[in-house]
Design goal:
- The complex is a heterotrimer.
- Chain A has 10 helices and 13 strands.
- Chain A is of the alpha/beta class.
- Chain A has a 5-stranded mixed beta sheet.
- In chain A, a hairpin with a 5-residue loop joins strand 3 and strand 4.
- The radius of gyration of chain A is 24 Å and the shape is globular.
- Chain C is mostly helical.
- Chain C is flat and about 70 Å long.
- Chain C starts with a helix and ends in a 9-residue tail after the last helix.
- The chains are: A alpha/beta, B mainly alpha, C mainly alpha.
- Chains in contact: A-B, A-C, B-C.
- Chains A and B meet through helix 1, helix 3 and helix 6 of A and helix 1, helix 3, helix 4, helix 6 and helix 7 of B.
């Protein structure tokens, strides 16, 4: 690993004239090399690139076959079918979703993202496509008081930049907040005992952890945290600010799959209850 | 458990290998360009090359990757907009990862190639020219073969570091071996099993590379006398 | 450009830089202390000892540090026996796992650097020591090690810089080192350029600082190897 302590060679006064040839050859090589990786992108039919997560069961997870699946993914495919668009799902860690959306790495984020006023400053949201409450989970019976005072000195695990992150960071100043890139890593550390409890979406917690063999002995702690200021108005699809066309189209598509039964079919595949919650006014 | 996920892990191995291979192509090209620039008579060319190698080698791969992946896309978009291009230019994670790793290791290879070039005595080139060889022929018959031999040890080292560096492309969302292992670890809650499998696969890649490059080194070092011999 | 985000986060960046330096210092210390005896074994004539140490360095040097970190941080916790052991209070700390992983990693490279320098010691130095009547232990302590460790300085300074950069992986296991802070700032303000360039500037400064310190050290301890100026 030659970093800085290369053997010091005295400056050579004579320079190979063949160097300029080498330079030309190298530049040509660079061009060829770059040309081979930059695949040309031609837009024929409507293409939508959707950022999805992959480690947030049952909403999105990567199966043993390496394919992404889950509620979010099925909804995405249904919306795309409705819009007759060709969609590509791009897997991205949650904390990079909005930066990547703004950087145009994809056009929409379909990743169980709560619609909040803070996020609305950076991106636009469609109407919600589901809504479930947020809760603490931890060892059954470990504690019952989940107020900021009750959790003083406790270690709370959250997924970075989620609404849960903001919520506990702002209100639980006496607790230690540990932030993770993937929700599944939060579960790993909860079982490992590095954190005392985790704050997350109740449905994700139930299906992604509490019902799995590893979740044995763990359960919800305290009451659901109802706080629209942090948790907003359900989960929506984020699009870039000003991308009204896409937002309107997606809203139309959400309404359509709600009306024609596709939504219910997808919902019944995963849940035995109504995940959509109260209808949008 | 492991058997079930093995196909996806191996699939990820292919991604890792293609990222490494494509990055190497860019790194070699940039390394040659950089070495040539560093040995150039033009001051500003040398300055650019020196800045490039110093900055790249002073900042962690991970930071550069995040910077290029997020910042680079914003930059490309602004550039495209400034040039009157209305759409976006898509940089997918593969291209971003390859460009970043290629860009980083281009800096390291610049030093490797520069060292190799400078180790070839100028007299040899002069002798070639005196024999009436064209500069191109001198380059091809005298400079390049010796440069390969002199650069091989450093090149081998850089290639091994490069392969291992590709592990961090998972952070920018490329589904390489590491990302597959990570998802499998999360889904099965058996991180040790899957990260150990990933470690084994990396070790296999580096071992095969070492054997192959050592063989190549022996081939190019034929007839070279060392102090030990 | 959103530089206000950076100015308001500067104290956090400083905290991050401090953590980066602590991680670096602790892992280098751990790596060096373990590497010294291992390097003696690696350079020894005993084929078995030599082979065993080589196996360790080969495996560590042949796999990415990120995998090693994940194996220690997430992997070990898979086993209930580990979680119930006396080591768990330590292993449950992210910074300890990071230092352990980084320390093991740098140890492997340091072993090879030092062993290489020991092997490259001119045999005349050993013969001279024998002729002076030094015992084997004295020869190691007075001649071989001081000479080899000095000559290891340039390569070791490389290793230190590499480790400085390697500590950025700590951000992946929840630690808020320099890179961790930058990722946090980016995801809070959506300002990738500003966030990561600030981190890069900090790393560059630290790199230059370390390079400078090693230059001073080389000037002090490698004086005898400097080319004579005419």
């Amino acid at each position: 690993m030659p970093a800085f302590a290369l053997p010091r060679i005295h400056t050579m006064k004579t320079i190979h004239p063949s160097i300029s040839l080498l330079l030309a050859a190298a530049l040509a090589l660079t061009t060829v090399a770059l040309a081979t990786v930059a695949a040309p992108a031609t837009a024929q039919e409507r293409k939508i690139r959707i950022g999805v997560e992959g480690a947030y069961p049952p909403f999105s997870e990567i199966g043993p076959d390496g394919k992404i699946k889950g509620f979010d993914i099925d909804i995405g495919n249904a919306l795309c079918a409705e819009l007759k668009a060709q969609c590509t799902m791009i897997v991205q860690d949650f904390d990079g979703m909005i930066p990547s959306l703004i950087a145009r790495k994809f056009d929409a984020v379909l990743a169980s993202m709560s619609i909040t006023d803070e996020r609305k400053k950076a991106v636009d949201f469609t109407n919600k496509y589901y809504h479930s409450p947020e809760r603490f989970i931890g060892k059954v019976g470990a504690l019952s008081d989940t107020s900021p005072a009750g959790l003083k000195g406790k270690r709370i695990g959250v997924q970075r930049t989620t609404t849960h992150d903001r919520y506990v960071s702002d209100l639980y100043k006496q607790s230690q907040i540990v932030r993770y890139t993937k929700q599944s890593d939060v579960y790993l550390d909860l079982v490992a005992g590095r954190i005392d409890l985790a704050m997350l979406d109740s449905v994700a917690a139930d299906f992604g952890f509490l019902r799995t063999p590893q979740g044995k002995g763990y359960g919800y702690l305290g009451e659901p945290a109802n706080n629209p200021k942090y948790f907003g108005y359900g989960s929506g699809i984020a699009v870039r600010k000003g991308d009204t066309q896409l937002r309107e189209d997606l809203n139309r598509a959400i309404a359509a799959i709600r009306a024609n039964g596709t939504y219910k079919k997808i919902q019944d595949k995963y849940f035995t209850f109504d995940i959509y919650g109260a209808p949008v006014k | 458990m492991l058997i079930e996920y093995l196909p996806t892990l191996l699939d990820g191995t292919l991604v890792t290998l293609s990222v490494a291979g494509a990055s190497l192509a860019i790194a070699v090209a940039l390394g040659l360009t950089g070495a040539a620039a560093k040995l150039s008579r033009l001051g500003w060319l040398r300055a650019i090359a020196t800045t490039y190698t110093t900055v790249i080698r002073g900042v962690p791969d991970l930071v550069l990757m995040l910077l290029i992946f997020y910042g680079g896309q914003v930059g490309v978009n602004q550039l495209a907009a400034a040039l009157g291009h209305d759409g976006y230019i898509d940089i997918n994670p593969f291209v971003a990862g390859v460009a970043t790793i290629g860009f980083i290791f281009g800096a390291y290879l610049t030093e490797t190639f520069r060292g190799a070039l400078m180790a070839i005595p100028a007299g040899q080139r002069e002798a070639g020219l005196a024999f009436g060889m064209s500069p191109l022929k001198v380059l091809w018959r005298i400079t390049v073969p010796q440069m390969i031999r002199l650069a091989l040890p450093g090149f081998t080292n850089n290639w091994l570091v490069l392969v291992k560096s590709t592990a961090i492309v998972s952070v920018i969302g490329l589904s390489d071996m590491m990302q597959r292992a990570g998802f499998a670890a999360g889904a099965t809650q058996q991180p040790f099993t899957f990260y150990l499998a990933a470690a084994g696969l990396y070790l296999a890649i580096t071992s095969v590379s070492l054997i192959a490059l050592n063989a190549l080194n022996r081939r190019y070092s034929l007839g070279v006398r060392t102090g030990a011999a | 450009m959103n530089w206000d985000a950076i100015t308001s986060s500067l104290p956090t960046y400083l905290d991050g830089a401090l953590l980066t330096l602590q991680l670096l210092g602790a892992s280098l210390l751990l790596g060096l202390v373990v590497a010294l005896p291992l390097a003696l074994l690696r350079a020894s004539a005993n084929a078995w000892a030599n082979r065993a140490v080589w196996c360790f360095t080969y495996v560590i040097r042949g796999t990415p540090m990120l995998v090693q970190l994940f194996l220690i941080y997430y992997g070990l916790a898979q086993f209930p026996a580990v979680r119930e052991s006396v080591l768990w209070p330590w292993l449950s700390q992210a910074w300890f796992c990071a230092v352990l992983a980084f320390g093991i990693n740098t140890c492997a490279y340091t072993v090879e650097i030092i062993a290489g320098c020991i092997r490259a010691t001119p045999h005349g130095e050993v013969e001279a020591a024998r002729a002076m009547g030094l015992t084997t232990a004295q020869t190691w302590r007075r001649i071989l090690l001081p000479s080899a460790l000095r000559r290891a300085l340039p390569a070791y300074s490389n290793e230190v810089i590499m480790m400085l950069h390697g500590t950025s992986l700590a951000s992946i296991v929840t630690l808020l080192d320099l890179t961790g802070v930058a990722r946090e700032v980016n995801s809070r303000f959506y300002a990738p350029f500003e966030a990561f360039i600030t981190a890069a500037v900090f790393y560059l400064a630290l790199t230059f600082l370390l390079v400078g310190l090693f230059h001073l050290a080389e000037r002090r301890w490698l004086k005898h190897l400097r080319p004579r100026t005419t």
